[in-house]
Amino acid sequence: MDQIDQLQAIVSRYRRQTGRLPDSWITLERAQLLRGNGAPTDPTGSPYLLDSFGKVSLSPASRLHPLPTEPPSAAAHQ
After folding, report:
1. Measured at the alpha carbon of residue 9, what is the angle toward residues 17 and 64, in degrees to the nearest 5?
2. C-alpha to C-alpha distance for 30 and 12, rounded to whole angstroms
3. CA-CA distance, 51 to 67, in Å (whole number)?
4. Residue in 62, 21, 55 with CA at minimum distance from that of residue 41
5. Are 14 and 27 in contact (CB under 8 A)?
6. Radius of gyration, CA atoms only, the chain
7. 73 — pLDDT class (breaks 50, 70, 90)
8. Which of 31, 30, 5, 38 is nearest to 16 (CA)?
């Protein structure tokens, strides 16, 4: 599981517990689901984004952006 998947799981857990989406990373910190001080950062130091739909993504300023996409599996071509 990569960092984005882990953060997305935390967002999902918050939604299950509260019935709503977090409006910021600080909301997740206050709920004691996330440690830190502000937005978590990717390996290059750029903060992850959390949109109003609860989707976690890389910042466009990150050197990792855009993430490579995985090729379709061989089974999908059969």
Report:
1. 145
2. 16
3. 17
4. 62
5. yes
6. 15
7. confident
8. 31
Amino acid in position 6: Q
Predicted local distance difference test score (pLDDT) of residue 28: 97
Residue-wise over 2-41: b if at least 16 C-beta within 10 A, else e? eebeebbebbeebeeeeeebbeebebbbeeeebeeeebbe
Query: 20 with 31: CB under 8 angstroms?
Result: no
Predicted confidence band of residue 74 (pLDDT cuts 50, 70, 90): low
The set of long-range contacts for 39-48, using a CB threshold of 8 Å and a minimum separation of 24, is 40/3, 40/7, 42/3, 43/3, 48/3, 48/4, 48/7
Residue range 30-62, pLDDT digits in tens: 999 999 888 999 999 999 999 999 999 999 889
Q: What is the pTM of this model?
A: 0.82
Q: The tokens 């390996």 sit on which residue?
A: 43
